[in-house]
């Protein structure tokens, strides 16, 4: 019962921010979070910086960062600890069109888009960095698939994580593989298509302190 009440309090912190498109706000309308979850949208980020107000804290430019999936605070990255939002991008190269099972863990409110389509929206934190509450069937297209993972954190633990079923992991290639920054990430995915990125839970767009 205590856990349920704490969970409800944590959810309430993001009832106001969850409907907002912070990518649209941060780029002054140049790109939306839905567009960011597409090849064309991701490639457009090469041509303009993010510009959230300085009071929002955190790293405002995006970079490549590999999370520790077992770390219950893997969203923090040395920035603000509470009242933050993180956007992360990965690109998944599939050998053919396939149905996959996606299993996310998060604290608190998580949204996941793939190729411009929203597949997950859950305000309930999962209870542990590797604790899964929902397995979600998603569709991957042949070639590059852009996955955008947004997670808002109110207080306490701050983590996000996901994995796919074994068959998917055996079949696909996830980027970045060896990239260490934005430029090397785009260099790595350039052969996929003229406008295609792929990731691993590691290309972090930004940590945004909640207003």
What does this entry look like structurally?
By secondary structure, the protein is α+β, with helices and mostly antiparallel strands. It has one domain. Helices cover 19% and strands 32% of the residues. The protein has helices at residues 2-12, 22-26, 33-36, 39-44, 166-171, 182-189; strands at 63-64, 84-94, 98-107, 109-114, 117-122, 136-140, 143-153, 159-164, 173-175, 203-209. The strands form two sheets. Strands 1, 2, 4, 5, 7, 9 and 10 form a seven-stranded antiparallel β-sheet that branches. Strands 6-3-8 form a three-stranded antiparallel β-sheet. Residues 1-11 and 195-211 have low confidence and may be disordered.
Keywords, please?
6 helices, 7-stranded antiparallel β-sheet, 3-stranded antiparallel β-sheet, alpha+beta, disordered N terminus, about 210 residues, about 20% helix, 10 strands
Strand content: 25-35%
How does the helix and strand content classify structurally? alpha+beta
Number of domains: 1
Number of helices: 6
Following the backbone from N to C, one meets helices and strands in this order, namely HHHHEEEEEEEEHEHE
Overall pLDDT level:
80
> What distance lies between the first and last C-alpha atoms, to the nearest angstrom?
30 Å
Poorly predicted regions are: 1-11, 195-211
Rg, rounded, reads 16 Å
């Amino acid at each position: 019962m205590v856990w349920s009440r704490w969970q409800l309090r944590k959810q309430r912190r993001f009832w106001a921010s969850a409907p907002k498109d912070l990518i649209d706000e941060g780029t002054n309308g140049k790109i939306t979070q839905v567009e960011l979850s597409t090849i064309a949208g991701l490639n457009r980020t090469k041509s303009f910086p993010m510009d959230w107000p300085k009071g929002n804290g955190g790293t405002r430019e995006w970079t490549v960062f590999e999370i520790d999936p077992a770390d219950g605070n893997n969203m923090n990255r040395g920035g603000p600890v509470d009242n933050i939002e993180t956007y992360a991008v990965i690109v998944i190269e599939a050998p053919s069109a396939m149905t996959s099972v996606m299993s996310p863990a998060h604290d608190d409110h998580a949204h996941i888009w793939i190729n411009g389509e929203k597949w997950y929206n859950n305000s309930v934190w999962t209870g542990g960095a590797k604790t899964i509450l929902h397995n979600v069937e998603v569709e991957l297209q042949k070639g590059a698939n852009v996955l955008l993972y947004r997670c808002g954190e109110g207080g306490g633990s701050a983590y996000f994580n996901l994995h796919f079923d074994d068959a998917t992991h055996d079949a696909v290639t996830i980027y970045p593989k060896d990239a260490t920054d934005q430029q090397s990430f785009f260099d790595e995915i350039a052969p996929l298509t003229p406008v295609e990125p792929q990731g691993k839970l590691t290309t972090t767009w930004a940590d945004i302190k909640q207003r």
